[in-house]
Amino acid sequence: MTELHEPAAFRTALRTWLDENDLTPPPGEDSLDAHQAQHLRVLKALWDAGWMRYGWPESAGGLGGPDILRAIVGEEIVGRRLDHPGPYSMLEVLTPTMIDYARPELAAEMVPKLLSGQESWCQGFSEPGAGSDLASLTTRAEQRGDTWVINGQKVWTSFAQYATRCVLLTRTGGPDTPAHQSITAFFVDLDTPGISVRPLRTMHDVDEFCEVYFDDVVVDESRMLGKPGDGWQLAMDLLPYERSTCFWQRIAYLYSRFDALVDEVKRQGQAIDAEMGDAYLALHTLRCRSRATQHRLAEGQKLGPDTSIDKVLLAGAEQQLFDTVRNLLPGVIELDDTEWRTEYLYSRAATIYGGTGEVQRNIIARRLLDLGKE
Ligand SMILES: Cc1cc2nc3c(=O)[nH]c(=O)nc-3n(C[C@H](O)[C@H](O)[C@H](O)COP(=O)(O)OP(=O)(O)OC[C@H]3O[C@@H](n4cnc5c(N)ncnc54)[C@H](O)[C@@H]3O)c2cc1C
């Protein structure tokens, strides 16, 4: 283990580097295009300096070391507001999946492109009729020689308009194969003929996610992730990452917004009241829980349904924080076109993305508390 694999030394060295290398976003640019450009710029700088390679295996272009090093990079970058938590989170969602499921040569070729900001990828799971009930997805892949032909539609695919590739879940196998055993994942180039991407406008007025259509899209068998029928397990293995390292940087972002709220409330001459205390407590509870999760991941433990607790706490803390903003800064959400308004509206999605609040509570009830069905 090199000196930099030790988390405290790593954090100190990274902070020094960030102080010496200004990655502040250009002022006055708040469009999604500007966020994406900044995201790629930050990744390139971090990759070139080595930071983005720690915590990833050497077989995929990394420099090794514990997973927790990635959580530190995410916390410092997103907590300093150098990148937005949404685009940054795609790294933690998709890279472990590629490393675990792609052919080693494919992972070695592709992972550095994502981590170095050469390109972005998206996650094509949800469909118009398959969100919470993901196992009912209908986008079909049929084998034709050494290739597979894909037809169907995905929806809510975050940042697909910027993505060059997609981790895609498809239905394979015949009508008699059980639903969970007939899902197969592919790593698809989005410039393949037959793919169209249509951005969708959200209520916070940003084209953050897309519909993606697949019409007779031919994908080589070498792009299959795992074996036919491994898709459900891939999805189950991906979601805990979405709720661990990925959350750590989102929590850092929420803390930075809590600090900004304290400044704003003080500037307006108001007292820091009990509601802010409650919002802080929710954030702190979330951070404590997530910290334990990062450590379990760093120890090499496999994460599972227990990360649903982290998801419930994250959604609750995020919404409580922006509810507090709405209550303490009257009119700023309803009347002003500010960042607070965008963030308040986006926080409503926290009980939906990565598995809804109701579904997480079902998982906790059934799989952790053994309370049986409904
Ligand atoms: C900001 C954002 C980004 C996203 N990004 C992506 C992405 O990049 N890729 C991707 O594939 N998907 C993405 N999604 C989609 C997300 O995964 C789905 O929205 C989510 O899984 C819920 O599915 P759904 O929207 O179809 O709602 P539904 O499953 O139709 O649920 C509707 C309502 O019914 C409730 N419900 C459903 N089933 C049950 C049940 N069994 N018990 C109790 N209540 C139930 C739900 O809790 C919800 O309130 C994103 C979503 C958001 C909001």
Automatic annotation (TrEMBL):
Its cofactor is FAD. Residues 229-369 form the Acyl-CoA dehydrogenase/oxidase C-terminal domain. Residues 122-217 form the Acyl-CoA oxidase/dehydrogenase middle domain. InterPro entries: Acyl-CoA_Oxase/DH_mid-dom, Acyl-CoA_Oxase/DH_mid-dom_sf, AcylCo_DH-like_C, AcylCo_DH/oxidase_C, AcylCoA_DH/ox_N, AcylCoA_DH/ox_N_sf, AcylCoA_DH/oxidase_NM_dom_sf, Mycobact_Acyl-CoA_DH. Signal peptide: none annotated. One of its GO terms (cellular component) is plasma membrane. Gene3D superfamilies: Acyl-CoA dehydrogenase/oxidase, N-terminal domain, Butyryl-CoA Dehydrogenase, subunit A, domain 2, Butyryl-CoA Dehydrogenase, subunit A, domain 3. Keywords: FAD, Flavoprotein, Oxidoreductase. It is an enzyme of class 1 (oxidoreductase). It comes from the Bacteria. Pfam families: Acyl-CoA_dh_1 (PF00441), Acyl-CoA_dh_M (PF02770), Acyl-CoA_dh_N (PF02771). Residues 9-118 form the Acyl-CoA dehydrogenase/oxidase N-terminal domain. One of its GO terms (molecular function) is oxidoreductase activity, acting on the CH-CH group of donors. Its EC number is 1.3.99.-. Belongs to the acyl-CoA dehydrogenase family. This is Acyl-CoA dehydrogenase. It comes from Mycolicibacterium chitae. The lineage of its organism: Bacteria, Bacillati, Actinomycetota, Actinomycetes, Mycobacteriales. The gene is caiA_2.
